[in-house]
Amino acid sequence: MQLMINNTQKSYADVKNERFSTNADYVITAQKRWEETYDALPQYQKDRVDYMLEQAKSEFRRRNPNFTSWDTLPLAEAKSLTMNQINIDATMQRQLDIFWVLTLLTQFTATKVVPIQVYKYKEGQYLAWDGQHTLMLLWLIATQLFEQDPDTVKFL
Q1: 25, 34, 85, 101: which has the fewest Cβ within 10 Å?
Q2: Separation between Cα atoms, residue 114 and residue 46, nearest integer Å
Q3: What pTM did the predictor assign?
Q4: What is the chain's Cα-based Rg?
Q5: How far apart are the C-alpha atoms of 151 and 138, rounded to whole Å?
């Protein structure tokens, strides 16, 4: 599909994607995002969303009868830990692939670093149950590139 705009042809995708070609920020709350999306739907789709939402809420309550308020929801918590507070549970982790860690270091992109999944082991000590390769990558960056003491490197 081609659209004529100012005597130049733009594809449908170009027209839709123009909104992403700006330096201006458009930051909104989750509620505003829901409302804008919902309000843009035709009525028959709004009716379907309303029905599906009620069904989803009902199923959530059926499956999770102990969750009665936000405070009873057992969500994971982000912790601010130093690097040396995180150890690797070698019984749960596969063998370390040093070559993969070095590949990750070579291709490092900070925005692709996923948080390390840990559980409390002892007071002040956590075990990584997922993310040993990430931990090793970050350990290399801290100790080998920036020559920092892992006791002072904080994960926020």
Answers
A1: 25
A2: 35
A3: 0.60
A4: 24
A5: 13
